[in-house]
Design brief:
Helix content is about 40%, strand content about 15%. The protein has eleven helices and nine strands. The chain has a seven-stranded mixed beta sheet with strand order 4-3-2-5-6-9-7, sandwiched between helices. A two-stranded antiparallel sheet has the order 1-8.
Length: about 280
């Protein structure tokens, strides 16, 4: 393990680079662990894999052995330079220098090709990118992401769990989430302060369409934004809807007027959001 860390450090130093703290750069250095991640991602031989966060290419190489095509996206210009100068990527792998948050990832695949996303995500960008993956779900077979263990818990939390919130509800309504391998901090250079978890996400059907999901998210964020308050107090205090209207919506869904957002199961949020939309619309002049 020490030898692997030394190789990564020497490679970076040879090109005048150091891990970028603000970008959360922690490089996986063990090929066996990279192979285990690629295997657990369930990559099929006919798939195009879009990888987010090339790093030094260790996971990219494992994915290229399993997929029909790999397109890997890296935002750091210094790492792009190292990858090209050292020929670290297998022939046929396409390296894209871009910010994944501003890139239509499924569009990087050929039209009609089955697409899977695999990513080692720094915590600072994980949440917005995971939200975009939900929007892309009809264009993807699935995605596997290596993220901070705490965020993995938020993705898969249930009512009553400390991490249960809007993020868990959105995933539950649209996907099946399975937590996979945990990687200890010592698997990376430099060593992070957190355990990482490889999470596997599969789109679920039927699911709310994009417009309905936005409406649900509108109410979710308001309700969970003041999670210590009842839904009545949270929504009536932040949105243009009366307390009586919120109580009526809760009643129509057989929910208690004293319910908090964290008490409401994901499956109930579309119906509750619909009732709230209707009642809020009636209150408009």
């Amino acid at each position: 393990m020490a030898e692997g860390k030394a190789r990564v450090r020497a490679l970076l130093e040879r090109h005048g680079l150091a891990p970028h703290k603000d970008r959360g750069q922690n490089f996986l250095f063990d090929p066996e662990r990279a192979a285990a991640l690629a295997d657990s991602a369930g990559v099929a031989p006919d798939e195009t894999v879009i990888e987010v966060g090339t790093g030094l290419g260790i996971l990219t190489r494992a994915l290229a052995e399993r997929a029909a095509r790999v397109v890997t996206v890296e935002v750091d210009a210094g790492l792009v330079r190292v990858l090209r100068a050292e020929s670290l990527l297998p022939e046929g792998v396409e390296l894209v220098h871009a910010d994944a948050r501003d890139t239509d990832l499924p569009a990087l695949a050929a039209p009609g090709a089955p697409v899977r996303v695999v990513a080692n995500l720094p915590y600072s960008v994980a949440t917005p990118l995971l939200r975009r993956l939900i929007d892309w779900r009809t264009r993807l077979r699935g995605w596997s992401v290596l993220i901070q263990k705490e965020l993995a818990g938020r993705m898969s939390a249930s009512p009553g769990d400390p991490g249960y919130g809007s993020f868990a509800v959105l995933h539950a309504l649209t996907t099946d989430v399975r937590r996979g391998l945990d990687l200890a901090p010592g698997c990376f250079y430099p060593v992070p302060r957190v355990v990482s978890t490889f999470v596997h996400v599969t789109p679920r059907e039927p699911a709310p369409d994009a417009a309905e999901l936005r409406r649900v998210e509108h109410w979710l964020r308001a309700a969970f934004g003041q999670r210590r308050k009842t839904v009545v107090r949270a929504l009536a205090g932040t949105l243009d809807v009366s307390a009586d209207a919120v109580r009526a919506a809760l009643s129509a869904c057989d929910l208690s007027p004293t319910a908090r957002a964290e008490d409401i199961a994901p499956a109930l949020w579309p119906a509750l959001s619909h009732e709230l939309d209707e009642l809020a619309g009636e209150a408009d002049p």
